[in-house]
UniProtKB/TrEMBL annotation:
Lineage: Bacteria, Pseudomonadati, Pseudomonadota, Alphaproteobacteria, Sphingomonadales
InterPro entries from the UniProt entry: NDUFA12 (IPR007763)
Chain intervals for the UniProt region annotation (Disordered): 91-132
Protein name: NADH dehydrogenase
Transmembrane spans: none
Gene Ontology biological process: response to oxidative stress
PANTHER family: NADH DEHYDROGENASE [UBIQUINONE] 1 ALPHA SUBCOMPLEX SUBUNIT 12, NADH-UBIQUINONE OXIDOREDUCTASE SUBUNIT B17.2
Coiled-coil region: none
Domain of life, per lineage: Bacteria
CC terms in the record's Gene Ontology section: respiratory chain complex I
Record organism: Sphingobium quisquiliarum P25
Length: 132
């Protein structure tokens, strides 16, 4: 990524301020399977160690795996590899949040699908301001 993109974009990786703070006070703790890098250093207003993530690509909080989310929010103290049991075979792999994309879920009554839905079953009565 070019230097101008680094200066003027916040949605793709770290900003200049975050990169400088990370280089000065951050200690790399780990990396997840998507290439996101996790750091800690300094202290927050409660006296706890600050923790943050530098995304590999677009900044989207739904890209943080559950185990690292727990670490970021001080739910677990050690890294996820050292504190959590191995994943179960029935656990699904990560899928990115599809909201706002062409892959987003759209029910049959959605405008993008024609805006027609099934008729109501008859137990529904629409409210009317003139009804008593």
């Amino acid at each position: 990524m070019g230097i101008l993109a680094k200066i003027f974009t916040w949605w793709n990786g770290a900003t200049i301020g975050t990169a400088l703070y990370t280089s000065r006070k951050g200690t790399k703790v780990g990396e997840d399977h998507q290439g996101n890098i996790y750091y800690e250093g300094g202290a927050d207003s409660y006296g706890r160690t600050r923790r943050w993530v530098i995304y590999n690509g677009n900044n989207d909080a739904s890209r943080v795996p559950a185990e690292w989310h727990g670490w970021l929010h001080h739910t677990i103290e050690g890294t996820p590899e050292s504190c959590l049991p191995p994943p179960r075979i029935w656990e699904r792999d990560f899928t990115p949040n599809a909201t706002g994309t062409p892959n987003a879920y759209r029910p049959s009554g959605a405008l993008e699908k024609g805006g027609h839905r099934q008729k109501a079953t008859g137990d529904y009565e629409a409210w009317s301001p003139d009804a008593s």
